[in-house]
Amino acid sequence: MIRINLLPYREKEKKEDITRQIMIIGIAFLAFLLALGGFHLYLNMRISSLEENITMQQNELDRLNRIISDIDTFKRDKALLEKKLAVINTLEENRLAPVRMLDELTTMVPVKDVWLEKLSEKGTAITIEGMARNNIAVAHFMKNLAGSTFIKSVDLISTKEKEVAGIKLQRFIISCVKKKG
Questions:
Q1: Where among 62, 95, 128 does a domain terminate?
Q2: What is the spatial distance between Cα 105 and Cα 8, in angstroms, rounded to a whole number?
Q3: What are the percentages of helix, strand and coil residues in the chain, rounded to 5?
Q4: pLDDT tens digit string along 130-146?
Q5: Where a domain ends, among 68, 95, 122?
Q6: CA atoms of 171 and 155, how far apart (whole Å)
Q7: Residue 1 lies in a domain
Q8: Cβ distance 94 to 78 under 8 Å?
Q9: What is the pTM of this model?
Q10: Nearest 5 degrees, angle CA 91-CA 108-CA 152?
Q11: pLDDT tens, position by position, 41-83
């Protein structure tokens, strides 16, 4: 007896294969989606971590910029104060200079031979006008000025004979240059 199987077993196997393949594809797709979701989650966590880091670094940069601006302000204030102190020190050093100069000038004037009428100062230039008994007294006075500690150079501008109360005197103008410091 011949047995004939009329059941479609090949079709059943094909359906099972297709079902199995669909299941494998579905599981693979699900695994792919899970992997993709995990990678997406990882990237989101990494991005949020980096954004947090950027925010912290920006805050630190802002804090350091404020400190730098404070330091710059302090440097400007310090430079301004140092400038003011330098001016004060210069004024303090030169405070007695005119007094010393006039004191030394009085010791250089030959007594009873030279009379000073006018003394003017512009920057480092000093102009002295006065009367003397004769040209020798003027020359002696100029020699004393040249040996002074505060005079750099002495030049005779002019001398003119002038009669005062019947006495012939020499009217002179002398130009001097002060030493610096």
A1: 95
A2: 141
A3: 60, 25, 15
A4: 999 888 888 888 888 88
A5: 95
A6: 15
A7: no
A8: no
A9: 0.50
A10: 55
A11: 999 999 999 999 999 999 999 999 999 999 999 999 999 999 9
